[in-house]
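Exercise 7. Predict the joint structure of the components listed below.
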Amino acid sequence: MKRNEKIYREAEQRTLELVTRRHFLRECRTGLGAMALGSFLQGCNWLGSKKPTPATTFNVNDPLGPRAPHFMAKARSVIYLHMAGAPSQLELFDYKPALQKMDGQDCPQSFIEGKKFAFIRGVPKLLGPQAKFAQYGESGLWLSEHLPHFQNVVDEVSILKAVTTDQFNHAPAQLLMHTGSARLGRPSMGSWVTYGLGSENANLPGFVVLTSGGSNPDAGKSVWGSGFLPSVYQGIQCRSAGDPVLFINDPKGMDRDLRRASIDAINEVNRNSHKTFGDPETLSRISQYEMAFKMQVTAPEVMNINDEPEYIHQMYGTRPGETAFANNALLARKLVEKGVRFVQLFDWGWDTHGTGPEGSLDIGFINKCREVDKAMTALLLDLKQRGLLEETLVVWGGEFGRTPMQENREGKQNSFKGRDHHTDAFAIWMAGAGIRKGFSYGETDEIGYNAISGKVTPYDIQATILQQLGFDHEKLTYEFQGRNFRLTDVHGKVIQDILA
Amino acid sequence: MMEFVGRLHPLIVHLPIGILLLGLVMLWWSRFSSGKRFLPVLEPVLFFGTIAAVISVITGLVMANNGDYDVDSVNRHRNTGIALAVLSLLLWILVRRGRLGLPTIYLSLSVFLGLISTGHYGATLTHGEDFLFRSDGDQSRMIKPLPDPQQALVYAEIIDPILQQKCVSCHGNSKQKGKLRLDSEDWIRKGGKNGPVVGEPGQEAEMLLRILLPPDDEEHMPPKEKGQLSKQQVALISWWIRTGADFKARANALLQSDTIRAALAALKTATTDEQPPAASAALPEVEAAPAASVEALKKAGAAVIPLQEGSNWLSVNLINVTDTTETVWRSLLGLKEQVWQLKAEDIDIPSASFNVIAQLKGLRQLSLADARIEAADLKALSALPELHSLNLKGTSVDLDALRSISSLPKLENLYLFNTAIDSTRIGAARALFPKAKVEAGRYFVPTLVSDTSLVK
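Solution:
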């Protein structure tokens, strides 16, 4: 590898040119002291402590190599469908006839005293359900008319109706849902899962993110970030229209051998750099070059939904060439079929305050339901017929719920029917991979304001997802800044009642 | 301040026990020549032991005032404790005067007896009457199954056993925390420091409030660190209290919800105590797979993963195997005992390879989805003893091939989507596997007008 050596020499030369004796003296005074102290302390093995071995160690040379879970897993993969903006549980899953009777009345003081809302001020009016409800399936679960397709698969899912959170703004609530903390800096669920389990398909990323609805979620890319985990575990966002990954084809005149040779050379340089500086991010960079090279072959095939038969396209209601939730749902199934561990879908546009027709419960909200209803139903059925629903956990939900009151921004009734952000009760559903079928868990009070039984938190949902993947959520940890961190922090209880 | 001094009692009592015992052993030993060396320190040891005993008595007297305990038991403990302090004081005086004769030895024996009995009565107050001789599986503390729960006396046969098991150790005869006893009807009616526990009609009962609080609430009962009530037990107690806390009624006389009916039915077979779910499933034992075979498979592009941490059972996915040559299958044969799951999807599987799969006798889940196979080769799989899930989606499987594997003893799930088994043949296929769920798919999601139109 003469050529590589030459490049490396050159890189080394450049670095050395920048480092002088003065640099050493100026930059390294405190560093030298600290290093000396550190090695003294380590040398004496003070307090007789053995360096704790992390619960899950990761192989620096093969960070995405598949690994065993703590115990036999029910789920091999997860598809998490996040409706960014928070859909209204009162128009979809949580049927409240009593709220209808109280429509237009002032909200009782007991509900609003001492509470803080994102936009509601003063005394708002209660708003009855803006949908007709009926019972469906053998399980007889209540669903609204806005999900005419989902009605047919309700016997496959568990609906959690008493989910609570403590964040009433989109970004922190999304972060809490996906990283276990309302503040930035923690790894997302998909990162934890790929860190713990690796990925079975070495030619595809283990954690893929797809977005639709015209915008990224409010919390930005941090909701699929890797936080303090090595960045090789962060979610790979693929484009939903056009080429899934930019620049995936080699430029004209560059053949695959030359590409291989150049990546080898770059990786060699990086490996030497890692030997010198020991920065783990250099290893991430190496494996990402490798992954990119492999994806040049695999991604165009897997990421392309056009090869799917017409029957499948009709089932999902895809819109080829556009950015659509349906396309992403189909892509999610293809990725899971090819061994991708965690697929995260975000669909934006569910924030129905009632300030305009787009965000109103009787116009924009219904259109959002129409965009996802057919596709999410098709996704469940398609996974089922392929034998994948047995080993794929599907989760659907938002970051919080919506108030039983009509929003009155600045004390004035909004011009359209809408609801404010609500933290005390909302609904999500889960299906597949050992989740109970046709089951409703948790109840809210008569107007759907507070959870009265089966109350769960985002941590409980995270613990349950990890449990189905074969993890004890208290043991999947990573040592950072001197202590072990985990997704559920110090919280989380597996929701045993929804496990079959 | 006084309360604080009182609460130090359980800590301080250990000092006289240790110091006085040490003194006694030294005193007895000093009767022999080898023990003469202890004589110089004997007096100071007994001195400190006596001081510790006196302090224990003082803190104990302060603590006894708070009244959480049975008066008789407290009195017994107090009397023996005071006696012990007096006896050890006498012993110290005798030893200080250099009297090491027989009377001193007799006195030391009575100090010893005082130590034992005071300690025992004290421990009874803290740990309950039967602490010493109770084993964890003790029948008297277990809840016995009921032959006919609907006919059972609700309080005597259902609620009382739960209270005995989870509550009475702190709210019983010897310990009466919060001046509350839950060991008989009269005491329950009487209530505790905070008033009645089962409440008057139409009023929330204190006991109900306490057991329904979240476990980390300070007021929650039983306390966080003690044995908790199971969900069923909470449901049964709430039901009993909400229906009026009748001490004489039989179960079928009270109004029952579905949850209660189920909880009652469960009393027939098992106890109301649920077992915590086992974290890792117990898998049958199997030897470790030969490392060479595992390595060869990994090198060929397969994912070979232990089923769970520390298990020898393997999950094998031939996902990145591009070149399915002889070596892959030969390596797989090396793992014939250990493979639990096998995914051989979307690859060519030659006839000879089926003989390899047929030898994987521990195989539970097999997916050949979209694999290029000869339908007739499937016959080889008919003897897999443990196979319970078989995915043949997108293969050339036909009815004849299905017939050849219809004897699979444990098959539960069979996937036939995208095969020649279409809607006209699925009935015949299902008839071949009466015990299994046969999934042919081909689901149809109609396109409604609303799917392609917008509300304006």
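Discussion. Confidence is low (pLDDT under 50) at residues 274-280 of chain B.
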